[in-house]
Amino acid sequence: MNLAFRKLGDFISTSTIPSRLEKHENASYFWLALLGCFLFKYTKEYPQNDELLMVLATFASFVPLFLYSLRVDDWRLFACIIVTTMIGIVWAPYNAGAAVFVIFSVGMCSRLANHRCAYAALYIVCAILLTADAVFQLPSHFLLPTLLFCLPVGIVSILVEKNIRTNEKLFRKQEEVENLARLAERERISRDIHDVLGHTLSVIALKADLARKLIKTDLAACANELTDIEQSARETLGEVRSTVRNNRANSLELELHLAKKALNAAEVKMIALIEQCTIPLALENVIALSLREAITNIIRHAKATKCKITLSSDSQYIKLMVADDGMATHRDFTIKKGSGLTGMTERIHALQGTLNIHHAHGMTIEISLPIKGAA
Fold first, then answer.
1. For residue 255, how many other CB atoms are within 10 A of its CB?
2. N or C: which end of the chain has fewer CB within 10 A?
């Protein structure tokens, strides 16, 4: 039953992170507005045919290149940075607004996943500019604005991107914690409902079978059994409601009383050796639920005639032992852990306790829970 909740939806929620990433990517499209600086020259003079073709070819190649750079963050992004820088250098003699392509390239540096690589790419862009100036003598009206804005824009872009990624990681951690909390709560409800229904329905089935046998011979006894069935059903309904509200605390004394009634109905003699001791509430709840599961298994599967329940304690541990003389005496008997034993194991391990199951003269379940640290 526990595994039934481990669906894809338990781990992938409708989080705010995809929308945050989409907003961040959409904001990157506003960088394209910088192309207006490149086109500013042509608001005053119409380009010649050759230059117009160069402008159209530049836009036709750069815009897809920029959009592609938004979706990669490895060597392909570095290649986009170099190509964009070279576009700016090629245009430098013709249009001072070509400095925006270098601004684009330093902005792309921020998208490299490793911030050290981002800074290295930024310095490489600056080195390419200085090398191109030394070789081709780039115009000062292109070079000076480029160098003036290149490093500040690049550094700010890298810091902003780093901050966004840090926030994304924090949101993902928070969402992971919330998912784990939801999953843990679902598993708790699964375990508790199994314990409540598994035990009580087994008792109801036994009493119904007994009532069916008594209906022809002893109507008064049959009526008593039917009354017990009704009472058990009502109590179970209340326990299920409490389980869902997470306010159910199991009393060990009550579980011992219910165990005796259930075992008597199954014609199993119960021997209880209960040491008087103070048990923390958290441990008592786990011990009570473990006792319930053990008794349920005896009634369902063991075909036992005797059941011995022992509770003892020392300065460090509370120990519970439930032993029966049932079918586990057979050599070919194998223990198969179902939802009940699995839930019992999870509860005990959550409190740093131990659970041992062995069979020689029947089955014996031994539980040991540390007292220290129990709330």
1. 21
2. C
